[in-house]
Amino acid sequence: MSCLLKIRAMRDDMSLIERKLADFILDNTHLLRDYSSQQLADAIGVSQSSVVKFSQKLGYRGYPDLKFAVNEAVISASSQQRRVTSHPSQERSIATSFRELRDATYAVLQGVADLNETEKLQHALKLLIAAETIQVAGFGKSAIVAKDFVLRLMQMGKVTLSSTDPALQIQMATTLSEGNVLFVVSDGGQNSDILKIVRQAKSKGAKVISLTRYGNNPTSILADIPIFALGGDTHVRTDSVLMQLGMQHLCHVLYVQMCQALKVDALLEESMNSHNLLDTK
């Protein structure tokens, strides 16, 4: 994942000093190449050790590795910008849009893999595989991701509850118990209906897996296992598209792993054949 993308994704969960460092780096990426850790600390008014700790929080061994990663991101962004400016937005070809969205999608999918710890995903898989019943909830834009995951679960023969009606979803959550799982999809993690469903499910002893935009939010805090996606683009045209792709990619990874564990290839083939019969009518 791009270093700058990681900084943007993690910013909301940073301390005041870390945010000052993050904002300075994001606003002055072209200067970082010539800054030592002490110069960066002096420019912001923090200690040199704060710069080192900030670098390590982002997953780098120290400031030199962070500086190298930022410079790589700047070069990559400059290269992409040259391609964009050679094709003004009003004249951009379909081929150019294909290429730009492909590159952005790859960055987001790689970011999803980097953001989520393997142990946490394995724990989510164990719960989903063992669950007697899985309730899936997602409203608005998140409903697209939720509906797709419901279809995947049903193809595997999993007993799945879902509805586009929040009141019905809350009622469904009252029927859950230990051994059941609630899987909620919420971009910002602040949807009031989702929070009601989560609280209801937890009160019944069900485990909750949340899929939200990266960062602490009310839904991820309540969930037993929070997993995350990210949009990675501030442009109004593509942010929601990339967020949806990131969320669906994570759901598809869970789906593939569940299929492997449950050995349901024959069931999937039967499901595909039934769809083919419907298509021929």
UniProtKB/TrEMBL annotation:
The keyword DNA-binding applies. InterPro entries: Homeodomain-like_sf, HTH_RpiR, RpiR-like, RpiR-like_SIS, SIS_dom, SIS_dom_sf, WH-like_DNA-bd_sf. Residues 1-77 form the HTH rpiR-type domain. GO terms for molecular function: carbohydrate derivative binding; DNA binding; DNA-binding transcription factor activity. The keyword Nucleotide-binding does not apply. It comes from the Bacteria. Residues 124-264 form the SIS domain. Pfam families: HTH_6 (PF01418), SIS (PF01380). PROSITE patterns: HTH_RPIR, SIS. This is MurR/RpiR family transcriptional regulator. It comes from Pseudidiomarina aquimaris. The lineage of its organism: Bacteria, Pseudomonadati, Pseudomonadota, Gammaproteobacteria, Alteromonadales.
